[in-house]
Design brief:
Blueprint: E1 2-3, H1 12-21, E2 25-27, E3 39-41, H2 43-62, E4 67-70, H3 79-83, H4 86-89, E5 91-96, E6 103-105, H5 106-112, H6 123-133, E7 151-154, E8 158-159, H7 162-167, E9 172-173, H8 180-192, E10 199-208, E11 223-233, H9 239-255, E12 263-267, E13 277-285, E14 289-300, H10 302-311, E15 317-318, E16 325-326, E17 329-336, H11 337-348, E18 349-354, E19 359-363, E20 374-378, H12 384-397, E21 403-405, H13 411-421, E22 425-429, H14 431-436, E23 438-443, E24 449-453, H15 454-458
Parallel strand pairs: 4-10, 20-21, 20-22
Antiparallel strand pairs: 1-18, 2-3, 5-6, 5-7, 8-9, 10-11, 11-17, 12-13, 13-14, 14-17, 15-16, 18-19, 22-23, 23-24
The structure holds glycyl-adenosine-5'-phosphate.
Length: 459
Amino acid sequence: MTKQSKTPAVSMDEIVSLCKRRGFIYQGSEIYGGVAGLYDFGPYGVELLNNIKKAFWRSEVQLRENYVGLDSAMFKDPRVWVASGHVGGFSDPLAECKECHTRIRVDKELGKIGVHADEKMEMQEIIDLFTANAKKIKCPTCKKSTFTEPKKFNLLVKSNLGDFTEQGSEPVYLPGEACQGIYLNYKNVLDTTRLKIPFGIAQIGKAFRNEISPRNFLFRTREFEQADTQYFVPPNQNEKPYQEIKKSRFDWYVEYGINPENLRWNQHTHLVFYAKDAWDIEYNFPSYGFDEIEGVHDRSDYDLSQHMKHSGADLTYTDPKTNEKYIPWIIETSAGLGRMFLAFLSDAYTVETLENGDTRTVLKLHKNLAPIKYAIFPLLKNKPELVKKARDLFRDLSKYHACEFDDNGNIGKRYRRQDEIGTPTCICIDFQTLEDNTVTLRDRDTTQQTRVKIQDLLK
Ligand code: GAP
């Protein structure tokens, strides 16, 4: 039994430490010294990540009549990124330390001294703010205050896909945002399904950004995944679905276990080039405070108009009832999987004091998100009849759920290990099992144990 005393403020260092210790996250290219802004998902990390994706897909695609999914190629014709506005307008303000050449992201450094700025402001506005406050900003490396004038730094990551590189055309870019594949295929989806406007397309895809200062663990990385939905509506009929979509996305985080007190809305004051209106769902990250996990954007007809103009394709829609022809407007939701991962993990992270004074760390993840659903233990590893029974149960149960077999160490340690990775139920095979085919189920959150018949468990 435990006393329910959750530690008041968990720090991000503790979350990072758990992620490393228990194989959720590894630094990218670690054996070569690591690369800033790149991370790999370890064995439990990939399970949690996949479960978040499944939960998103279930809610956004499978439970909706008028939404379908898509998985588009990452490489695209380079003109896509010109049309989308990313070649011309997707940049962050950068300045370089004249002493040691460290590059800083100007809006973030201004923020640190209490001056509000963001990457969507006009460049001149940022230069003025920076000049007025230049003496207060210190280089994070050499602590001097001598910087070059801020300039725009484009975030697109270039690559060299054979055909295009040989033709000497625009460079080929990795996706700066995953959603462009949805706009390119919106007509294909309409032509090959029975959908009519309004309808939505969801996609989970990779995005790459040359972030000037990747920071805060998974929060700002150079490679990440985005879970997007794009909802196509007739012009000027965006307001009602926009509000409904906003509500449904906020509620989704609460449904999957996030404490609503750790979530809030933030409306953008400066809009990115494609948006008419934009709101962020923010999560109260340990140590960092509230920051964006998901953006909900009213993109109007910006994207389809741009692609019509640059590709020459007709992307208009003809209403089958009224024959009205129009370019649909789009409501977008776009969430970073890494940030969702960090939010779910941080919210679930609990430290409890046991009655004997020991503490246990437990991830109280929603059961659907937990990397392992059942951990199966023989009470003793040197009793072959217990081990065989446990292995048989593992074989039967793992047909339906992610299970783990563990016979290593004393039973108390095995429970602690599973608590730390959020396994909702541990099953122990003991001597009584050999007599009556019952096992002990131990609940992660209450630590209470009950005995059930193996047949009932499998049912
Ligand atoms: N298609 C719209 C779009 O890309 P965004 O606000 O730039 O909008 C959407 O990105 C989400 O992607 C953000 O809410 C955030 O969760 C995630 N994201 C953006 N940049 C990121 C980065 N450098 N590292 C990790 N996640 C990032």
